[in-house]
UniProtKB/TrEMBL annotation:
<dbReference type="InterPro" id="IPR036554">
    <property type="entry name" value="GHMP_kinase_C_sf"/>
</dbReference>
<dbReference type="InterPro" id="IPR014721">
    <property type="entry name" value="Ribsml_uS5_D2-typ_fold_subgr"/>
</dbReference>
<comment type="function">
    <text>Catalyzes the phosphorylation of the position 2 hydroxy group of 4-diphosphocytidyl-2C-methyl-D-erythritol.</text>
</comment>
<dbReference type="InterPro" id="IPR013750">
    <property type="entry name" value="GHMP_kinase_C_dom"/>
</dbReference>
<keyword id="KW-0414">Isoprene biosynthesis</keyword>
<keyword id="KW-0808">Transferase</keyword>
<keyword id="KW-0547">Nucleotide-binding</keyword>
<feature type="active site">
    <location>
        <position position="11"/>
    </location>
</feature>
<protein>
    <recommendedName>
        <fullName>4-diphosphocytidyl-2-C-methyl-D-erythritol kinase</fullName>
        <ecNumber>2.7.1.148</ecNumber>
    </recommendedName>
</protein>
<comment type="similarity">
    <text>Belongs to the GHMP kinase family. IspE subfamily.</text>
</comment>
<feature type="active site">
    <location>
        <position position="142"/>
    </location>
</feature>
<dbReference type="Pfam" id="PF00288">
    <property type="entry name" value="GHMP_kinases_N"/>
</dbReference>
<dbReference type="GO" id="GO:0016301">
    <property type="term" value="F:kinase activity"/>
</dbReference>
<keyword id="KW-0067">ATP-binding</keyword>
<dbReference type="InterPro" id="IPR004424">
    <property type="entry name" value="IspE"/>
</dbReference>
<dbReference type="Pfam" id="PF08544">
    <property type="entry name" value="GHMP_kinases_C"/>
</dbReference>
<feature type="domain" description="GHMP kinase N-terminal">
    <location>
        <begin position="70"/>
        <end position="148"/>
    </location>
</feature>
Length: 297
């Protein structure tokens, strides 16, 4: 069998409202998630042994372990478990993860890897369509949306997904200042300050956003509720946001997820790439990770 390959794309929360808190401590969200061309790459080859295995490669593989805690191997285990008794007898998979996205950075890298592994394993084992979506939420709140990997409204704790209305063509620049941020610590900070901002329910336009201006007018009515808490923990995020807002042709900027990656929107991928070159020439951006290109359709 020829190896199977797929991309685990970066997830960006264009806005993120925390609307409530469940008894188990998980927060209820309302968010518009989109995916950028940036991503990790996962490859699956048939293996002869009886254990699934993982090797790590790429610029952000250092600091990650290829052990049972890695979300790629956890995805394989969760999928076998979901399948039931026959899950244990399915042929072993040799998985290869090429890590290009910074770890613990608010763009769902680990979740995207897990979702990508689920998609590949479902193909490898020729599973029915419902099997990977059943395993996804057991691996993390962001894994279901990363399985879909298309612009989506996320509600519930990230488990209620609705396809987003049509989005305009746009370019995106992602910038991470090289600090990792733990998602639980940011939710804990939010909870400690009382957390929930009361707001009227948000309605998305049924016909979508025909232009970037109309999408930005909508985003201007929203926030990322985790952003102030992430800045309080890592003040450099505020510096990133200041730099993004000052870039040529920038139309909108904000932090994604629980941080520290921030994004800026542009009329086109070319303008995003030109702004990335401009930013890379600044002293403050030394050591910052960035990626610029298209938002996936
Ligand atoms: C912030 C987001 O990235 C927005 O898309 C996600 O909500 C986080 O998704 P994730 O990293 O896959 O999160 P998980 O690994 O499931 O959860 C990590 C921790 O974050 C907190 N958490 C996560 C999701 C959620 N809806 N409410 C929470 O309170 C919980 O303390 C949880 O223990
Ligand atoms: N394949 C993986 N890639 C990245 N992190 C992984 C992976 N497997 C396990 N982890 C662990 O998961 C944690 C979260 O990493 P991840 O990169 O998904 O965070 P994130 O970008 O903040 O995600 P989110 O936007 O979903 O909150 C890290 O602390 C890391 O040690």
């Amino acid at each position: 069998m020829a190896p199977l390959q797929d991309m685990a794309h970066a997830k960006i929360n264009l806005f993120l409202h925390v609307t409530g808190r469940r008894e188990d401590g998980y927060h209820l969200l309302d968010s518009l998630a989109v995916f950028a061309g940036a991503g990790d790459r996962v490859t699956l080859s048939a293996a002869s042994g009886d254990e699934d295995s993982l090797t790590l490669h790429g610029p952000f593989s250092e600091g990650l372990e290829a052990d049972d805690n890695n979300l790629v191997l956890r995805a394989a285990k969760a999928l076998r478990h979901e399948i039931g008794t026959t899950g244990r007898t399915l042929p072993a998979a040799a998985l290869r993860l090429e890590k290009h996205l910074p770890v613990a950075s608010g763009i769902g890298g680990g979740s995207a890897d897990a979702a990508c592994a689920l998609r590949l394993l479902a193909r490898h084992w020729q599973l029915p369509d419902d099997m990977a979506p059943r395993a996804a939420p057991t691996l993390g709140a962001d894994v279901p949306v990363c399985l879909v990997q298309k612009a989506t409204r996320m509600e519930g704790i990230g488990d209620i997904l609705t396809p987003a209305p049509a989005l305009p063509e746009m370019g995106i620049l992602l910038v991470n200042p090289g600090v990792s941020v733990s998602t639980p610590s940011i939710f804990r900070r939010l909870a400690a300050t009382g957390g929930i901002t009361p707001r009227p329910a948000l309605s998305f336009p049924e016909t979508g956003w025909p232009t970037l201006a109309s999408l930005i007018a909508f985003l201007d009515t929203t926030e990322n509720d985790l952003q102030p808490h992430a800045i309080a923990q890592e003040p450099v995020i505020a510096t990133v946001l200041e730099r993004l807002a000052a870039l040529p042709d920038v139309r909108f900027s904000r932090m994604s997820g629980s941080g520290a990656t921030c994004f800026a929107l542009f009329d086109s991928a070319d303008k995003a790439m030109a702004a990335a070159r401009h930013l890379a020439g600044q002293d403050c951006a030394h050591g910052w990770w960035h990626w610029a290109g298209p938002v996936l359709p």
